[in-house]
């Protein structure tokens, strides 16, 4: 049933990205309308231009925010993966030490029996 999980995941991620972008564009448009509503001295052409620029700036700021968030996410993933690897190595070392001590104890006790 789940022949191409990577392809489906990529497809769903792409859809999510488009929906997020559409949502931010709508938010930018709404914010632009709110902003220009108080500027009653603008002509219709000026109002449209201010709204267009406002929307573009809103989208650019959102995109920059997403890029920073993605970069920070990558950094945190690398940090956590490195910490996890260190913990695994420590656990392996403790297990090997425990096995070695157990074996040494058994070998020391066997001649006494």
Descriptive overview:
With 113 residues, this protein is mostly helical. It is built from 2 helices and no strands. The chain has helices at residues 5-37, 44-109. The radius of gyration is 30 Å and the shape is rod-shaped. The chain starts with a helix and ends with a helix. The model has no long low-confidence stretch (mean pLDDT 93).
Provide a compact summary of the structure.
The chain is mostly helical. Helices cover 88% and strands 0% of the residues.
Looking at this protein, list some descriptive labels.
113 residues
Q: Segments where pLDDT lies below 50 for 5+ residues? A: none
Number of helices: 2
Describe the largest sheet.
none
What oligomeric state is this? single chain
Global morphology = rod-shaped
Distance between the ends:
60 Å
Mean pLDDT: 93
How many whole angstroms does the radius of gyration measure? Answer: 30 Å
Kindly state the percentage of residues in helix: over 70%
Estimated structural class: mainly alpha
- In percent terms, what proportion of residues is strand? under 5%
User: How many β-strands, per DSSP?
Assistant: 0
Q: H/E series, N to C?
A: HH
């Amino acid at each position: 049933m789940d022949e191409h999980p990577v392809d489906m995941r990529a497809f769903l991620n792409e859809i999510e990205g488009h929906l997020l972008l559409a949502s931010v564009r709508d938010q930018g448009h709404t914010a632009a309308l709110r902003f220009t509503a108080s500027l009653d001295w603008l002509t219709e052409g000026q109002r449209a231009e201010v709204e267009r620029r406002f929307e573009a700036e809103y989208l650019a700021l959102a995109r920059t925010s997403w890029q920073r968030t993605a970069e920070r996410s990558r950094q945190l993933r690398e940090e956590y993966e490195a910490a996890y690897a260190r913990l695994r190595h420590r656990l392996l070392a403790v297990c090997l030490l425990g096995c070695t001590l157990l074996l040494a104890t058994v070998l020391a006790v066997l001649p006494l029996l």
